[in-house]
Design a protein that fits this description.
Elements (H helix, E strand, L loop, with lengths): L1 H10 L5 E3 L7 H6 L4 E4 L15 H12 L3 E5 L4 H8 L6 E2 L8 H10 L6 E5 L2 H10 L3 E5 L8 H19 L8
Parallel strand pairs: 1-6, 2-3, 2-5, 3-4, 5-6
Pfam families: Hydrolase_like
Protein name: YqeG family HAD IIIA-type phosphatase
GO molecular function, one term: phosphatidylglycerophosphatase activity
Length: 179
């Protein structure tokens, strides 16, 4: 019984997909999977954690998603001002101080989008916040490689734990990508 519980628990840390960059996620492939909405992390997923504004490439990515009628909500554990400065020029709804991996903010974002959770994907660069939170709330998840290898203090701690989880999963044959 304990082995089954550990196995079920570990699945919460396992994303449905893994890509190198947000730019590897194309609206056409999302639509083929029935995806109508994206809940995405901000820092180190869309831009480096110390970059305030969207890059021209990110602006174009958002435009492509909107052109394909895919709604986006940004969900971040960061403070209101940080998330607002990034999100408002993109005319994109956001949730700040989300307390990821708790599922409340994910479910709230889906409700605001008025999209069934089966039609939404959660995208982020952290297993302990984005993937765990998205999976726990019942969404599909995509893990992206962090944009930069530097992090804030809490995230550095999380990355050490993530490396152990990924190493265990790799050894068990659950994942095949490299860090």
């Amino acid at each position: 019984m304990a082995v089954v519980e550990v196995s079920r628990l570990l699945k919460l840390f396992l994303p449905n997909e893994h890509v190198k960059s947000i730019f590897d996620i194309k609206p056409e492939s999302l639509q083929k999977k029935g995806i109508k909405g994206i809940i995405t992390d901000l820092d180190n997923t869309l831009v480096a954690w110390d970059v305030a504004d969207a890059t021209p490439e990110i602006i174009e990515w958002f435009k492509q998603m909107k052109a394909h009628n895919i709604k986006i909500t940004i969900i971040s554990n960061n403070k209101r001002e940080r998330v607002k400065i990034f999100s408002e020029p993109l005319d994109t709804p956001f949730v700040f101080s989300a307390r990821k991996p708790l599922s409340r903010a994910f479910k709230s974002a889906a409700k605001e989008m008025q999209i069934n959770k089966d039609d939404i994907v959660v995208i982020g660069d952290q297993i302990l916040t984005d993937v765990l939170g998205g999976n726990s709330a019942g969404f599909r998840t995509i893990l992206v490689v962090p944009i930069v290898q530097t992090d804030g203090k809490v995230t550095r701690f999380n990355r050490r734990i993530e490396r152990r989880i990924l190493s265990y999963m790799r050894n068990k044959g659950k994942i095949s990508w490299e860090e």
